[in-house]
TrEMBL record:
<feature type="domain" description="HTH cro/C1-type">
    <location>
        <begin position="6"/>
        <end position="60"/>
    </location>
</feature>
<keyword id="KW-0238">DNA-binding</keyword>
<dbReference type="InterPro" id="IPR001387">
    <property type="entry name" value="Cro/C1-type_HTH"/>
</dbReference>
<protein>
    <submittedName>
        <fullName>Helix-turn-helix transcriptional regulator</fullName>
    </submittedName>
</protein>
<dbReference type="Pfam" id="PF01381">
    <property type="entry name" value="HTH_3"/>
</dbReference>
<dbReference type="InterPro" id="IPR010982">
    <property type="entry name" value="Lambda_DNA-bd_dom_sf"/>
</dbReference>
Length: 69
């Protein structure tokens, strides 16, 4: 599963879901779906989201293993 920190990054910047959607050219519903893990963004969209926050993509998205260690 790909985890994300979009909600946290938005809160740090005082952005709404609509603000982020406008920055990256998607709908607010798409932002909601990504935040709730109902939709995994394409690589292009993931990079666009990271660019909107002005951070490395690894600060926004992280792959989590389903295996217990």
């Amino acid at each position: 599963m790909i985890k994300n920190r979009i909600k946290v990054l938005r809160a740090e910047r005082d952005w709404t879901q609509a603000d982020l959607a406008d920055y990256v050219g998607i709908s607010r519903q798409a932002v909601i779906s990504i935040e709730k893990y109902k939709y995994t963004p394409s690589l292009d969209l993931a990079f666009s989201i990271a660019k909107a926050f002005d951070v490395d993509i690894n600060e926004v998205f992280k792959q989590e293993d389903d295996m217990n260690e």
